[in-house]
Specification:
Elements: H1 4-30, H2 35-76, E1 93-102, E2 118-128, E3 133-137, H3 144-151, E4 158-165, H4 172-176, E5 178-181, H5 193-204, H6 211-224, H7 245-257, E6 263-267, H8 275-290, E7 294-298, H9 304-307, E8 312-317, E9 320-326, H10 330-336, H11 347-355, H12 369-394, H13 402-409, H14 415-434, H15 437-453, H16 462-485, H17 487-500, H18 506-535, H19 542-570, H20 573-589, H21 600-603, H22 610-622, E10 628-630, E11 637-639, H23 644-647, H24 654-676
This protein binds adenosine-5'-triphosphate (ATP) and magnesium ion.
Magnesium ion is lined by residues 144-145, 183, 267, 298.
């Protein structure tokens, strides 16, 4: 079989078979009635040819796979770092009778309370041992991602059945020993490939490695995944051109490979890649599995070469298992229950056809897809289900290593390290947005415009000056609120991904994101006040100016906290924005400037209003209680404190306002923190 002419002959023959199959397909399309008569004798010949060569082709394909992997491995064996060596702690994954149900949510006011429950996974059993690679196949919507998420311990809700990892349920230690590559890549668009991987390395790799060693790991992964050419390009996103989709996918895979996980889940790692790159990635995974790791992936359309690399295959159809077992035995199994392809074809194509209820067998051609699927489901139940369950239960509890468990149960880095890495990453990622030209221009335009409108106003026009102070509190209530509202909803996916892999504490993330926003939050209002204050001719005195600036910055921080809390609680940008504008408008209305005679039953609302406190403090920076201003009656002078819109808020008891704002400053952030605690919590 090894001589060249034999292979060439075989390949020619295989090509010929494919051509004949295509021809039959075409004939069927053009002559629907005669096609059967034509196809039968040809298919009989094909069947004969197939039987004779099937075994030989399979053997050869396997040889090719091994040769291929070996060829690709030689290059990687030189990788100096431990990532590609043996697994730290082998994991046997078992799952029995996994059932998952959802109640579809219906949006809007017209909710149908009797929405029907949908069963997405209908009792799936299986086992993957260290050194094995399981591929889940099935048509779109068959439940692959759902099952993968459940196995990865990330599916909340109505999940029944048992999933064990070395005989025990999912734990924090397992979380840090597991890699999970999601179907959609969740990456920061403004970071480069290297930055992304280095930040991940700094956060996820243990402290026994130095910073440089962690960076070297990231480099090793870059070369392993062939990302050299794009290592300094930014990742990009829907609105920002960055690296290609396939490169992005590889970065996601790299992030998980970095930690040398013993259990690796990948959702469609090869989708969107050309067959050579797909081959390369699966070879890398094959190699990782060979090092004693357990690998589970979903995959669409693997080529037949890839197919034979999988140690185990799970075929799903609408949440039902149709096959679980060795990849090389799958064709024999389906042949034994009467489903054999009428010509040589890629086994994965054949399996997907079956899962869709399309039998490529001539005799079953006219069968209804639902009937075919039903037949396959019951065949699985009678032939494989019991055997599989017995096998899963038979394999006794696996090695438990308490000491290693403890090592994984801890955070891999200290709070301070997490904070500093997250802060640097946050600043890098958000500086583009925070200091966007649009925002700066927006603030400058408003600043100059109000400076001109209030040009050198003086105390004779007290109403105008007070109007400006109230405008300060209004504008700088809304602006930071809307900036902050987007922070957490935008980061939700990232937080979910990173928290569910146990990358950092929520507190370090929270502090880092609060601090990384600070520069922008404080610089813009400072510029604004500096421009308007002097243009509008408020008290020309450094002390008064600094007081006004400090009050405004303080209120900006409080509004910012409110925005963070709203974003974190609602977790939906649109809804949070609407809610935010309603709340801020109520605060403004209750601020004490627009309406002085408020009915008692609603007067309490001013105690909740940030604008009310800010307005009061701003007034105090400009006027003292016994300061007078020129007015019409009363000997030509009146007390500022008696001016209607000042009198209501008063020029005394500023300490109370400062304290009230302090309570809000802390309170809103606390609410945000508590709301975030629900994100990325994994099933235990
Ligand atoms: N939370 C949910 N609410 C409603 N339906 C859901 C939910 N989760 C999953 N589904 C449904 O369950 C089915 C399986 O979804 P899943 O994402 O697992 O499919 P898949 O096999 O990964 O498909 P694809 O190959 O397209 O990624 C789909 O029909 C999906 O609409
Ligand atoms: Mg999917």
């Amino acid at each position: 079989m090894k001589d060249g002419s034999g292979i060439a002959f075989l390949l020619d023959k295989e090509d010929l078979l494919h051509d004949l199959a295509a021809l039959i397909g075409k004939l069927k399309r053009y002559f629907p009635t005669t096609s059967k008569a034509i196809s039968l004798p040809i298919s009989a010949k094909l069947q004969y040819a197939r039987e004779k060569e099937d075994r030989a082709a399979k053997d050869m394909e396997k040889e090719m796979v091994v040769a291929d992997v070996e060829a690709q491995t030689t290059e990687k064996q030189e990788a100096p770092l431990s990532i590609f060596k043996k697994s730290n702690r082998p994991v046997t994954l078992k799952f029995e009778d996994v059932v998952y149900k959802v109640k579809p949510k219906k949006g809007g006011f017209l909710k149908n309370s009797k929405s029907e429950e949908k069963t997405i996974l209908k009792g799936i059993t299986g086992m993957v041992q260290p050194g094995e690679m399981l591929a889940m196949l099935g048509p779109s919507g068959s439940g692959k991602t759902t099952l993968l998420t459940a196995l990865g311990g990330r599916l909340n809700g109505r999940l029944n059945g048992t999933i064990t990892y070395n005989g025990s349920p999912f734990s924090n230690a397992m979380k840090r020993n597991t890699g999970f590559v999601t179907q959609d890549d969740v990456l920061y668009p403004h970071l480069t490939v290297t930055e992304t991987l280095v930040f991940t390395a700094l956060l996820r790799l243990p402290n026994s490695l130095t910073k440089d060693e962690k960076a070297a790991h990231a480099e090793a992964v870059i070369s392993q995944l062939g990302l050299h050419r794009c290592k300094n390009s930014i990742i990009g996103g829907p609105l920002l051109r960055g690296v290609s989709g396939g490169e992005r996918k590889r970065v996601s895979i790299g992030q998980e490979m970095l930690i040398n996980p013993s259990l690796l889940f990948l959702d469609e790692p090869t989708s969107g890649l050309d067959s050579t790159t797909a081959q390369r990635i699966v070879s890398t995974l094959w190699e990782l599995a060979n090092g004693g790791r357990t690998i589970v992936m979903t995959i669409h359309q693997p080529s037949s070469r890839l197919f034979y690399m999988f140690h185990k295959v799970l075929l799903l159809s609408e949440g039902n298992p149709l096959y679980f077992g060795k990849g090389e035995e799958v064709m024999a199994y389906f042949a034994s229950i009467g489903f054999a392809p009428s010509f040589a074809m890629n086994p994965s194509d054949f399996l997907l056809d079956l899962a869709n209820g399309v039998a490529s067998d001539e005799s079953r051609e006219d069968e209804d897809p639902t009937v075919v699927k039903q037949t396959l489901v019951s065949a699985f139940k009678t032939n494989l289900a019991d055997k599989l369950k017995a096998e899963v239960q038979e394999t006794g509890p696996c090695r438990q290593d308490g000491a290693e468990d403890k090592q994984f149960a801890r955070w891999s880095t200290t709070w301070g390290q997490q904070f500093s890495v997250l802060l640097r990453r946050g600043v890098k990622e958000r500086k583009h947005e925070a200091f966007s030209t649009v925002k700066i221009v927006q603030v400058l335009v408003v600043a100059f415009l109000s400076g001109l409108l209030w040009w050198q106003s003086d105390i004779t026009n007290l109403q105008d000056q007070i109007g400006l102070l109230f405008f300060y509190s209004g504008f700088w209530g809304f602006f930071p609120l809307f900036n902050a509202i987007f922070t957490f909803p935008q980061e939700r996916m990232m937080l979910e991904k990173e928290r569910s892999s146990g990358m950092y504490r929520l507190s370090s993330y929270f502090m880092a994101s609060a601090f990384s926003d600070l520069p922008m939050e404080l610089v813009l209002p400072t510029i604004f006040v500096t421009i308007t204050y002097w243009m509008a001719g408020l008290k020309p005195n450094a002390v008064n100016f600094l007081e006004a600036l400090l009050v405004l910055l303080y209120s900006v921080l409080v509004s910012n906290g409110l925005g963070l809390a709203l974003g974190a609680v609602v977790m939906d940008q649109k809804k949070a924005t609407i809610l935010g504008s309603v709340i801020m408008l109520s605060f403004l209305l209750a601020g004490g400037y627009y309406v002085q005679h408020v009915p008692g039953f609603i007067a309490w609302i001013k105690y909740l209003s940030i604008s009310n406190y800010t307005y009061k403090l701003l007034l105090a920076t400009q006027y003292s209680p016994n300061e007078a201003y020129p007015c019409a009656g009363n000997n030509g002078t009146c007390l500022v404190g008696d001016f209607p819109s000042v009198k209501l808020v008063g020029l005394d008891r500023q300490v109370l306002s400062v304290a009230a704002l302090a309570v809000m400053f802390v309170g809103y952030r606390l609410v945000a923190y508590i709301a975030l605690m629900r994100i990325g919590v994994t099933r235990k």
